[in-house]
Amino acid sequence: MILHFYFARRFAMALLVIATVLATLVLLVDLIDQTRKFADFGVSFAQRLGLTLLNVPETLNQILPLIMILGTVTLFISLARSSELVVTRAAGRSAMRALVAPVAVALVLGVLATTTLGPIVAATSKRYATLAETYRSGGASALSVSEEGLWLRQGSEAGQTVIRAARSNADASVLYDVSFVAYAPGGGPVRRIEAASAALQDGAWSLRQAKVWPLTTGLNPEANAVTHDVLAVPSTLTLDRIRETLGTPAGVSIWDMPDFIVQLEQAGFSARHHRVWLQAQLARPLFLMGMVLVAAAFTMRHTRFGGTGTAVLAAVLLGFALYFIRSFAQILGENGQIPLMLSAWAAPCAAILLGLGLLLRTEDG
Question: Is the pLDDT of residue 365 over 60?
Fold first, then answer.
């Protein structure tokens, strides 16, 4: 048991060092990218740094499999160079037993990444999107889905507009049973619009069968209401931005995802993308365990045999290949070309079986 704790501590320290180094690199690269994106919007250095810090957790969450591979390689190369693996084998400990602690650490980190880091990433991603939109257009644009339907908020220097729709078509290009409430900058509502449908075109909403009520103080809204067969309402939103918001499950906490999927389908959208993402997050601990097994299969060898650099390169490349296969399977699942469960769970299970097979072949011949 003492040896297991020792290996677990060494592995955790290796992961911490690598995560710190990669986080620093990500911070510097993303800061440069934010400077490029907002160079023309008068955003200060402190604001760009704030956006960068909000963006770092999402990037680290995405590269966690790489951190796991590099941490495993670092652990076993250091153990091999100090001959601790040789001593461990001489004491009657097999390679498979030596892997119990790193695999257990990977499982714990995978569970924490799914249940804790994921919600943190969802919160920081939402905040980043809000601030970025505010810096670009002077007003925040937001989208949410609830039991009451689809809610949008668009902003500009002319004020904010809140939009509610009972439902939408599958690609979010047309909203039905729409209500618009426009607000003056820093003030109250100034106009309300009800329409049978609203289609987002270049820079404007095209409303059909619309009725407009002025909400200016001193006017009777119903007496001054105007009906339009077709009405254009300026908009700062784009279809790509709406679809991107709906199509980014990372912006929703895994704890809220089941309810969000139900609400998304009630609003008329396809939730297959979010279902695949949910299953992939649940399978994530298994995938991280597979990364540890695959990396260990190439590096649990004494350095006197040579070829350490080749073994490390092979471990990293195989890890990238498994990550690509996992991402490709999820894309196929989102497109409905393979079953949902297969797209999320096949790659993690394959990674574990491949790692075990390589270890058994290497250790037991």
Answer: no
With contact defined as beta carbons under 8 Å apart, do 258 and 281 qualify? no
| Distance separating alpha carbons of residues 361 and 365, to the nearest angstrom | 5
Contact 260, 273 (CB under 8 A): no
Evaluate if residue 308 carries a pLDDT over 50: yes
User: What DSSP state is assigned to residue 218?
Assistant: T
| Cβ atoms of residues 261 and 278 within 8 Å | yes
Q: pLDDT tens digits for 101-150?
A: 899 999 999 999 999 998 999 888 888 877 887 777 655 555 667 666 78
Long-range CB contacts for residues 86-91, cutoff 8 Å, separation at least 24: 86/302, 88/3
Q: How many CB atoms lie within 10 A of CB 12?
A: 17
Q: For 233-283, how does the pLDDT look when each residue is reduced to its tens digit (9 = 90+)? A: 888 777 776 766 665 777 788 888 888 888 777 766 678 888 999 999 999
Taking the C-alpha atoms of residue 137 and residue 358, their distance in angstroms, rounded to an integer, is 54
User: Where do we find the tokens 């461990």?
Assistant: 88
Handedness of CA 212, 181, 274, 259 (dihedral sign): negative
Among 228, 239, 172, CA closest to 201:
239
Q: Where are the chain's structural domains? A: 2-135+256-364, 142-236
Q: What is the pTM of this model?
A: 0.78
Q: How many CA atoms within 13 Å lie on the side-chain side of 68?
A: 30
Give the DSSP letter of residue 336. T
% helix, strand, coil for the chain, step of 5: 60, 20, 20
Cα separation of 351 and 345, whole Å?
10
CB-CB contact of 49 with 28 (8 Å): no
DSSP track, 127-157: HHHHHHHHHHHSS--EEEEETTEEEEEEEET
Helix (H, G, I), strand (E, B) or coil at 180: strand
The closest of 42, 238, 235, 41 to 155, measured between CA atoms, is 235
Model pLDDT, residue 244: 61
pLDDT level of residue 165 (50, 70, 90 thresholds) = confident
